[in-house]
Amino acid sequence: MLAVPLFALLALLAACAGTPGSGDAAGGDATGDATGTPPSAPAGEDGPTAGGGDDDLVIEIDRGDGSPVQRYTLACGGSTPGDLPGAEAACAHLTGMAEPFAPVPADAVCTEQYGGPQTARITGRWHGQPVDLELSRVDGCRISQWDGLGPLLPGPVGVEAPPS
Asked: 5 φ, ψ to 5°?
């Protein structure tokens, strides 16, 4: 009797998440459009200062626990990788994704689950295109989007386990 609802939940998660590395759920929830076209950078914003190339990102992570926002830079393909922990792994991971910053489609059906209070913002340029991506963990699609970016978002995430 439990198998049918569990199967339905897994089917919804699979539909929302897409395939790993496909970029289906690896974009922003409030930026870009449903076609995956990245938004334009705000006027006067040249992107991050990590390395000055086409693959330079600034990652700001708010753990949602009252601690200060963490800010990292990442430059892939340059001589200075930035200060993101595991920069090489993050660059390799992003390079292996078709569209790492594609937005969640506006018509996506997402599971109503809460993954934690964490939020993040990624700005800069990737493959010469502007990136301005807001991330959260407020539903199944956004959790999948966050998790799909892997080493780009270092540190613990998710809802804390209840006390035992």
From this structure: -65, -35
Structural tokens at position 100: 């790492």
- The torsion defined by the Cα of 51, 52, 54 and 59, in degrees rounded to 10, comes to 60
Q: Which of 161, 37, 48 is nearest to 105 (CA)?
A: 37
Q: Rounded CA gap, 2 and 58, in Å?
A: 44
Nearest to 49 by CA among 83, 17, 21: 83
pTM: predicted TM-score of the whole model, two decimal places: 0.66
Please name which of 122, 14, 8 lies closest in space to residue 71, comparing C-alpha atoms.
122
In tens, the pLDDT along 65-120 reads: 999 999 999 999 877 789 999 999 999 999 999 999 988 999 999 999 999 999 99
CB 145, CB 27: distance < 8 Å: yes
pLDDT in tens, 16-49: 444 333 333 334 333 333 333 333 333 334 444 4
Identity of residue 86: G
Structure tokens given for 103 = 């937005």
Residue 164 corresponds to which tokens in the numbers above? 């035992």
Contact 153, 61 (CB under 8 A): yes
